[in-house]
Structures are given as C-alpha cells and as structure tokens.
Amino acid sequence: MSRVSIIIPTLNEAKCLGRTLRHLSLLTPPAWEVLVVDGGSSDETIAIAQTAGVQVISAKQCGRAAQSNQGAEVATGEILCFLHADTLVSDDLVTVIEQTLADKTVVAGGFISLMAGEKTTRWGVSLHNWLKTYYAPLLFRPHLFFQGLRLLFGDQVIFARRADFWECGGFDSNLPIMEEADLCIKIVRRGKIRLVNRIVQSSDRRVAKWGFFKATAIYLYIGFLWGVGVSPQYLKQFYKDIR
Length: 243
Hints:
- It is a single chain.
- This protein has 243 residues and is of the alpha/beta class.
- The chain has a single domain (4-238), classed as Alpha-Beta Complex (Spore Coat Polysaccharide Biosynthesis Protein SpsA, Chain A).
- Helices cover 42% and strands 21% of the residues.
- It has helices at 14-24, 45-51, 64-74, 93-101, 123-140, 142-145, 162-167, 179-187, 205-210, 212-227, 232-235, and strands at residues 4-10, 33-38, 55-58, 79-82, 87-88, 106-116, 158-161, 192-203.
- The chain has an eight-stranded mixed β-sheet with strand order 3-2-1-4-7-6-8-5, with helices on both faces.
- It starts with a strand and ends in an 8-residue tail after the last helix.
- Residues 5-135 form the Glycosyltransferase 2-like domain.
- It is found in: Cell membrane.
- GO terms for molecular function: glycosyltransferase activity.
- It comes from Hassallia byssoidea VB512170.
C-alpha cells in the first residue's frame, strides 16, 4: 500500500475547514498524513486544524502554488494529493488514488468536481467544468491532448506520485492563478493524466457570490485568455478570493 500525503493550502478557511477535515478523518484506509499549510489566516483556521490533530505548517510564501509546494517538500508519502479546504472527498479516496496510479502509464489524476452549496447543486457549472477538462486541452494544446493531457483544476483534488511531481518542477510558485493547469502541461510529458469517474464536492461560494452567468463568463474569459498565452498575473485581477 502506498503512502498518500494530503496537502491543504489555507487562508481564512474557518467556515469550511472543519467539515473537510472531518471527512478526511473517515478515510479507509487513512491517509499517511494530512498537512495544512497556512498562509497567515486571521480567523480560526489554525485552531481548527490543530484541534483536528493534523500537522500545521506556516507558509514561507503566501499563495496557493507556493503553499502547496511547501507542503510537498515536508510530506513524506510517495503520493501527493492536493486538496482545497472547501472540497469534500469520499471515504475511499486513498484506495481510488492508489488504484489509478497502479497504471504506470498514468502520471497524475483528479476527480469530477460537483459544485454545491447549502441549498442547491450547481449542475450547469459542474457540467461545464467537467467538459472543460477535455475541451480546453483539445482546443489549446491538441498535440498534448492526444498524449493524455487533461486540464485539472484545484477543486478536482489533483494527485500525483511525489517523484513525478518534483521531476517536472512542481507548481510554479510565481503563478497567482492557473497553477494547476500549468502543472498538468508540465507533468503530462511524463505520462497520461486521468480524470477519475468519481465525484468530489466543492463549495459554490464563488457562483453564489457572482451568480451563474457572471461566474460562467469569468471562467470562460480567464480560460480563453490563458489558453492563448495571456499572463496569469494579469488574469488574477478577474478572479478575486472569496471566503
């Protein structure tokens, strides 16, 4: 059995972290370790993580990419799993990850993200996000699509072998957005990326704040501009943090 390290970058995630960690406590088999890499939270995020008994690391550099890399440096498992604080996973997560990576031609993977809130499930946005995994690489990187490129994003719970993650350089800590897509483009040169036919549940807080049409327009706008080479530093202004 492989050792799976789960890495959670956080910044003021007190509203959702406790529930996420409770789900992780039910994993069967359990994760090898859970590491929360905090970027300087001013709410109860750190206290919640400490109460749950997981390892808490203070980030040297704030930003999801940099915090994820720092967690990967500290992690001791052979497999790294990057989980957003507002995403819930099933109790067989570790088994699914191990079974997926048992195929040596698969270098990384992720799940189908079902976006939901307290009172609704965002079926339309979730469907688009699923389709985007396929149509975005086919549209913008067709040569890599046929090599196995699938564009995964953070709420899809990306996982990879530790060795492959670092061989391709990990996340680019200088990217404020689209760091997961950048990782996919780098790591696919070492093998295929697989979208696992299983669901994880992510928060709809952005769609709830922006509304369906505005959120969809922002996602499409950022995705298209990134695909044609616009700087993620420029694109970040359209994708504000929402807690």
